Amino acid sequence: MDNWNPIATAPKDGSIVLLRDADHVCDCAMYWNEKTGRWEGMAYSMMGAVKTHWDESFLPIHEWKHIK
Asked: Which sign does the torsion angle of CA 34, 47, 55, 1 carry?
C-alpha cells in the first residue's frame, strides 16, 4: 500500500511530509510554513543545501504522505 493522501488533507502543523504532483514528475520532503503560506524544504546541489519552496503556479501539488 502506497499511503498517498489528497493534498487537501495534508498537515499544516510544521510536520515534514513527502509531496508529489499528479504526474509523479516531482516529489519533495517539505513542511508548511505558516508565516509565508507555502510549502518549504531543502534542495541539494553541487553548491550545497539551499532552502526552497514548491511553486504551485508551475506544478500543482496533488498528494502527500508521511515520511517513514
From this structure: negative
This prediction's pTM: 0.85
Tell me the CA distances in angstroms from 18 to 29, 46, 47, one per residue in order.
4, 23, 23
Nearest 10 degrees: CA dihedral of 16, 20, 26, 30? -10
| Strand, coil or helix: 9 | helix
- CA–CA separation, 10 vs 47, rounded Å? 31
State how far the Cα of 3 lies from the Cα of 16, in Å rounded to an integer.
15
For 55, the grid coordinates are 511553486
Q: What is the pLDDT of residues 23-53, one digit of tens each?
A: 998 889 999 999 999 999 988 878 888 889 9
Q: What is the per-residue DSSP string for 21-46?
A: ETTSS-EEEEEEETTTTEEEEEEEET
